[in-house]
Amino acid sequence: MTEMAMVNWVYVVLLFILGFITYKRKSLDLFGTAVMIIMGIIIIFSAGASWLLLIVLFLVMSLLATKYSKKYKMSLGEFEGRRTSKNVISNGVVACFMAAFGSYYLPFVGGFIGAIATATADTLASEIGVLDKHPRLITTLQQVDPGTNGAVSVLGTAAGMIGAAIIGVAAYFLGIMVNPLIAVGVAIISGTVGCFMDSILGAVFENHGFLTNEHVNLIATIVGALVGILLL
Q: Who has the most CB within 10 Å: 91, 164, 204, 209?
């Protein structure tokens, strides 16, 4: 028990180092970094470091996707620079809750993977999909400008599904789920459903000012988590 506690504290130190790097690289603001560290500590001591590593994987993929074709995104006015605590909470609080109580209710493992897969799929679909010059609004299928809330494209959807699949594969190798096929299946299905829910909410509510992007992200991860729970 003492040895395990020592290992966990080592991960806490590494988490602080990751937070420092993220802040210095201007990927997160100070409060966003603090929230990330707090949620990470909760996950480490309630579920284990392997669960945290899955979220770190999501963070890394998100940062890489955001930086990809930065100049082009800036020319479109679609480059999202330093993220805030609102972004961290809306994308991570559901996964944090699932991890905190995953040992008490097994289906929450599926909920955790579903929430992370949704956040990953949505981020990659948005950051890569904006490069597609002919997206369509998910509710009407009308062609719209890249970056429009609720816009979907083949490129973005493919990127999102690949991102979700990577989360599923990682969940298996990290020992979070023992069956690789179930892990990948849960991640792809829940991530895709959650991602499309994000697009629908964006088209119907965010475009009309009824919801913010953070609200949409939060609801989408809740839907992804629920799908993951049902699949498990």
A: 164
Residue where the block lists tokens 């429009």: 148
Which residues are CB-contacts of 65 (< 8 A; sequence separation ≥ 6)?
123, 124, 127, 128, 159, 163
Q: Tokens for 27? A: 């990927």
**Residue 166 DSSP label:** H
| Contact by Cβ (8 Å): 158, 124 | no
Asked whether 187 and 157 are in contact (CB, 8 A), the reply is no
> pLDDT tens digit string along 163-172?
999 999 999 9
Cα separation, 118 vs 42, whole angstroms: 21
Q: What is the pTM of this model?
A: 0.91
CA atoms within 13 A on the CB side of 119: 32
